[in-house]
Design goal:
single chain; alpha+beta; 23% helix
Length: 381
C-alpha cells in the first residue's frame, strides 16, 4: 500500500459547497469548513416534489422542516444558502431504482445510491460547473492525500461513527473534490452536539436520521405494495414443500426471521429464515440459519476509489453499513469481482454492496450479484 499522509489544508481558500441536510453533522461540517477559512456556500437538496410525503421529525434529511433547519444553521454560520431542486433526479436514480431492485428480488441500499448518484454526481457536477472547488458533507470518513497527489478514501478516526461503507462508490476524481471535516474527529456524537450548541446551531439536539427518507411512515412493505401491487405466492421449505403464503415476494429480504407468517414450526423446532427470493415464480424459500452461510460471491458494477486492483489480493470486506469486517480473497474475473470468505458469513443478499478495505483504505465497492452457500447451490436474483 502506498504510504499516505493526512490531507493538508489548501494553500488558498477553496470555494466550498456545503450540502446541508438539516441535521447536526452537516451543520457542524459546514461551520468547520467556514472556520478553516474557506469560502463556503450552503445548499439544501430538495429531493421530493411533495416534501410533506417524506418522513419528518427525526429525519435530518429531505423534508420542509429539514430545509428550514438547514437555512437557520447557514444564517448562524454566516454563509449564503440555497435550495436546489433535484427531485426528478432523486426519483429516477434512487426511488425508482429501489423499487426495481426489490421487484427483481434484490436488496438495495438507497443511501449508498444517493451518495453515488445525487451528492457526488448530480450535486458535484453542478458545483464544479458553477466554479466550486469541493463539496463538503457531514459524513464520517477521511480523504488522504498521497505524496504523488492522488487521493484515497479512508475510514473515519472513530470506527463507531465511520461511514466509509456508503462512500465506497466514489472514484478518485470525485474524492479530489470531496471534503469531510468530521472524519478526523475523535469525539463522541454528544461532543459534536455540544460543539453545535457552542456555535449556536439550533440543530444541536435534533435526533439522528433513521430508516428511509422517502418512505414517510417507515412501512417499506406497504410502500412497495403501493408501487408493485400485491401478488399472492408460496413460502416453501428447502424441499419445496409449501409452509405458508405471502402477498408479495418483494416484502422479504434474505436472512429475515420475523414476519414470515408461517403457521407451524419447523420439524426441529428451530427458527426459519428467508434463504431465497424468486421473483420469477413469486416464491420465498425458508430454512435453518446454517443454510444462510455464504462462502463466496460474485459482484458486479465495481467502482474503485483510485486505481483498480491488479490480480488477486487479500482484503477485509464490509457487507452492510454498520457491519463488521471479515477477511477475504478477491480478484476481478471477466469483469466481475470474485470474493471468497475466510469463514462463512450470513445475511448476504444480492443487491447489497460489498466494500473492500486495505487496512483503513477503501479499495472500492461492488454490487453483490450471486452468492455461494456452504450447504446449497449458488443463489442469484
Amino acid at each position: 500500500m502506498t504510504e499516505t499522509s493526512p490531507q493538508r489544508p489548501s494553500a488558498r481558500p477553496l470555494r466550498v459547497l456545503a450540502a446541508m441536510s438539516g441535521g447536526v453533522d452537516s451543520a457542524v461540517a459546514a461551520a468547520r469548513a467556514a472556520e478553516a477559512g474557506h469560502d463556503v456556500t450552503g445548499v439544501h437538496l430538495a429531493l421530493s416534489a411533495n416534501p410533506q410525503s417524506f418522513r419528518t421529525g427525526a429525519r435530518g434529511c429531505c423534508t420542509i422542516e429539514d430545509s428550514r433547519d438547514a437555512r437557520r444553521a447557514a444564517d448562524v454560520i454566516g454563509i449564503p444558502f440555497y435550495v436546489w431542486d433535484l427531485a426528478e433526479r432523486f426519483r429516477e436514480d434512487v426511488v425508482d431504482d429501489f423499487v426495481a431492485e426489490y421487484e427483481a428480488g434484490r436488496t438495495p441500499n438507497p443511501c449508498l445510491r444517493c451518495n453515488e448518484k445525487i451528492k457526488f454526481a448530480a450535486l458535484l457536477d453542478k458545483a464544479l460547473a458553477l466554479g466550486f472547488d469541493a463539496v463538503c458533507t457531514g459524513h464520517y470518513a477521511t480523504v488522504v492525500l498521497r505524496e504523488d497527489g492522488g487521493r484515497e478514501l479512508h475510514r473515519a478516526s472513530d470506527m463507531a461513527k465511520d461511514q466509509s461503507y456508503v462512500l465506497g462508490v466514489l472514484d478518485e476524481k470525485q474524492l479530489a473534490h470531496a471534503m469531510f471535516p468530521l472524519g478526523d474527529t475523535l469525539t463522541t456524537k454528544d461532543e459534536i452536539r455540544a460543539e453545535a450548541e457552542r456555535r449556536g446551531l439550533a440543530v444541536a439536539k435534533k435526533p439522528d436520521s433513521h430508516d428511509i427518507c422517502f418512505i414517510a411512515d417507515g412501512d417499506t412493505q406497504g410502500f412497495l405494495a403501493r408501487h408493485l401491487g400485491t401478488a399472492e405466492g408460496d413460502i416453501v421449505d428447502e424441499s419445496g414443500a409449501k409452509v405458508g403464503s405471502h402477498t408479495g415476494a418483494y416484502g422479504f429480504t434474505i436472512g429475515q426471521r420475523k414476519g414470515l407468517r408461517i403457521g407451524h414450526p419447523a420439524p426441529d423446532g428451530k427458527p426459519r429464515y428467508v434463504l431465497d427470493i424468486s421473483p420469477v415464480n413469486n416464491t420465498v424459500t425458508v430454512g435453518p440459519a446454517e443454510a444462510l452461510d455464504v462462502t463466496a460471491l460474485t459482484a458486479i458494477k465495481p467502482r474503485w476509489c483510485g486505481t483498480a486492483p491488479d490480480g488477486p489480493g487479500r482484503y477485509t470486506a464490509q457487507l452492510r453499513a454498520h457491519g463488521d469486517e471479515t477477511p477475504v480473497s478477491a480478484e476481478m474475473t471477466d469483469g466481475e469481482l470474485s470474493v471468497t470468505f475466510d469463514a462463512p458469513v450470513r445475511g448476504v443478499a444480492p443487491g447489497q454492496a460489498i466494500v473492500l478495505y486495505d487496512g483503513t483504505r477503501v479499495v472500492g465497492s461492488a454490487t453483490i450479484a450471486t452468492t455461494v452457500r456452504r450447504t446449497a447451490q449458488p443463489t442469484t436474483a
